[in-house]
Design a protein that fits this description.
Radius of gyration: 14 Å
Strand order of the largest sheet: 1-2-3-5-4
Distance between the termini: 20 Å
Shape: globular
Bound molecules: 2'-deoxyguanosine-5'-monophosphate
Strand content: 15-25%
Order of helices and strands: HEEEHEE
Structural class: alpha+beta
CATH topology: HIT family, subunit A
Number of strands: 5
Largest sheet: 5 strands, antiparallel
CATH class: Alpha Beta
Length: 114
């Protein structure tokens, strides 16, 4: 089952996170269980539980998240190659019910993923 939305607590600064970027639409912070030398989560401030809940009104927000990801990849030194991952629903490995991109890099990443 999807756990509580712990990311809301991070957004509200109720629990600490190693924040690397924030603006009026999103926040990015290091994943607590990194799967690569660089593993950052990029989340919108707007609560969107899963990718499947996206609406037409979210198109601009999604574009913004992608731009932030590309800029963060440069800033964090993984511009030579990185992966942007989004797990949608439990079967795909989603554990937190708040849309988020994983930005991973700093090592060779194999394909296909598990
Ligand atoms: P997913 O499995 O795609 O839903 O990814 C959720 C990620 O969130 C997972 O890689 C671990 C991370 N995570 C869960 N709780 C916390 C937390 O309290 N702080 C931080 N920084 N990351 C968390």
């Amino acid at each position: 089952m999807l756990s509580q939305n712990i990311f809301l607590k991070i957004l509200d600064k109720e629990i600490p996170a190693r924040i690397v970027y924030e603006d009026d639409r999103c926040i990015a912070f290091h994943d607590v269980h990194p799967q690569a030398p660089v593993h950052v989560l990029i989340i919108p401030r707007k609560v969107i539980p899963t990718h499947a809940d996206l609406k037409a009104e979210d198109i601009e927000l999604l574009g913004h998240l992608h731009l932030v990801a590309a800029q963060l990849a440069e800033k964090l030194g993984i511009g030579d190659g990185y992966r942007l991952v989004l797990n949608c629903k439990e079967r795909a490995g989603q554990t937190v019910p708040h849309l988020h991109f994983h930005l991973l890099g700093g090592r060779d990443l194999s394909w296909p993923p598990g």
